[in-house]
Amino acid sequence: MVRDRIAALRALMREKGIDAYMIPTDDYHASEYVGSFFKCREYMTGFTGSAGTAVITQEMAGMWTDARYFIQAERQMEGTGVTLYRMNEPGVPTVHEFLAQTLKKGQTLGFDGRCVGATEAASLEEKLGSLGITIACDEDLVDKVWTDRPALSCEPAWELDLKWAGKSREEKIAQIREELKKAGADLFLLTKLEDIAWLLNIRGNDIHTVPVVLSYLMMSESEIRLYANEKSFSPELTEKLAQAGVTIRPYDAVYEDAAAIEAGKTVLLDKGKANYLLVKRIPADVKVLDRTNPTLLPKSIKNPVEVENMKIAHIKDGVAVTKFICWLKKHVGKERITECSAAERLYEFRKEQEHFVDNSFDPIISYGEHAAMNHYSPTPETDVEIEPHGLMLADTGGHYLEGSTDITRTVAMGEITEDERLHFTAVLRGHLNLANAKFLYGCTGINLDYLARSPLWERGEDFKHGTGHGVGYLLSVHESPNGFRWRRLPNRSEDAVLEEGMITSNEPGYYVEGAYGVRHENMIVCKKAEKNEYGQFMCFENLTMVPFDLDAIAPEQMTAKERALLNRYHAEVYEKISPYLDEEEREWLKNATREI
């Protein structure tokens, strides 16, 4: 099937005079996850991961993705004729390097300019243009091959009440207009869906598990235009937006309005997020300020209402996940439980919680060797039974009106090997040390990442993913600009100074291909500690309240301080979660949080 689709695309490329066609993962808004309408790369290659770029020529088909998806991509693309290029591995060219090496003078690279960021496209123009290679960006060729393509999503939009948002849309709009004044901008062109949702206190369902509305936004001192499908908005919500000065325009009208911006005006936008075709529409006599979206930082710094709500969300989620682990421990080996059925059971526990909205991402329930694939999600084709031995990894999360959660627990299903126990403990030690960090204001996640990796690095071992990412408030579970990783990556903005109110995941791991995987993840909120002659000190507070599996820990590998940190955390888990459990579950939790 994939081979037939690639053959059809190649025929179309010959007809259009296109020698290489690039298919990114992105939608028109540089979203991490995309709606079914935008899954062109998946349709053409069979690879379902959330990150990657495909390149098709007449001679080859290639798929570039990162270490999270190496195993998954290799399996899903087996027999398709698509070659896996392992990004960031020695000797593997980047997509841009490959195109520069492969295409010849006079040839043409094609892509849908709405799905490629303006910064990336400009880099390609410069690199390939110097070699005499042209770019064609006005056509979506996959659309002509994909005969049964799903329709563009048009789900209902809804308002996030002030008691959840903590700040009105009018206040947020005024705040961003002040930033525009400081920058000397007449207009702000915003394309990121999460930022638009945050700014206007709206949510939707146009991307699976990401409650956003397909939209663009253009703001001036006196006007705000929201480009979206009007059918998504009720008369009541439309009226409330109008009261804040927001007018709804057709979704695609943003391109003609961008082309009509008056000469001499100054437009602020983020070329790394705004798509290439939209930026190309802006007239040459309009000044473009390429800046980080001024919505990015205030969205990431949760206000006091949001922080308190997030604590409530994590108590609710802690109850659901604790019940799930208790159930799993008591029923494994006594009834048939598979990865998929376990995910369904956890979803039911979450649904019991008040104000539950949806999963915050597709659950990663992975048993045994499946857990070695960082972002594996079970499907009916890959589903396996969970047996009463070995490790099961559950990376899941929920959206509540009080906020979003993301938690990983690795659970011993019965007897485990000494290697599994060793790595379970080493990863937990790193997790505890990062959660307990105390640091001067001005540090970024790069300054602190070593705390999480040191128990593995001391053994000459590592894990090939970031240690943590920002988390949105009832938005994307992966949110810039805060994060933890040991080095800067040019395509990821995760090195912001850690501010009070930023919520970040703490999730070191370890993976043995074909055998097992371990990951421990909590959400932590950054807060102020003491201030003295050395400056303002900062620290973290755990939001996630679920026990770590003592059945898989080797206490003798831990320092006395690490054991004390774990005991203190478990005492807090019991205090906060036990009141919501029945007697049997409470007794189980008491044992699961016993001191070591």
**Major sheet strand order:** 4-3-2-1-5-6
Low-confidence stretches: none
Count the helices. How many?
19
Count up the domains. Answer: 3
Strand content: 15-25%
Q: Which descriptor suits the 3D outline? A: globular
Report how far the terminal alpha carbons are from each other. 55 Å
Helix content: 25-40%
- Give the strand tally: 28
Sheet with the most strands, sense and barrel status: 6 strands, mixed
Derived from helix and strand composition plus strand pairing, the structural class reads alpha+beta
Assigned CATH superfamily of the largest domain: Creatinase/methionine aminopeptidase superfamily
What's the level 1 CATH class of the largest domain? Alpha Beta
Radius of gyration (CA) equals: 25 Å
Which fold does the CATH topology of the largest domain refer to?
Answer: Creatine Amidinohydrolase
* CATH architecture descriptor of the largest domain: Alpha-Beta Complex
Description:
The chain has 596 residues and is of the alpha+beta class. The protein is built from 19 helices and 28 strands. The protein has 3 domains: 144 residues, Creatine Amidinohydrolase, Chain A, domain 1 (3-Layer(aba) Sandwich), CATH 3.40.350; 142 residues, Creatine Amidinohydrolase, Chain A, domain 1 (3-Layer(aba) Sandwich); 292 residues, Creatine Amidinohydrolase (Alpha-Beta Complex), CATH 3.90.230.10. The strands form 8 sheets. The protein has a 6-stranded mixed beta sheet, sandwiched between helices. It has a 6-stranded mixed beta sheet with strand order 12-11-10-8-13-14. Strands 21-28-27-24 form a 4-stranded antiparallel beta sheet. The longest helix has 28 residues. It starts with a helix and ends with a helix.
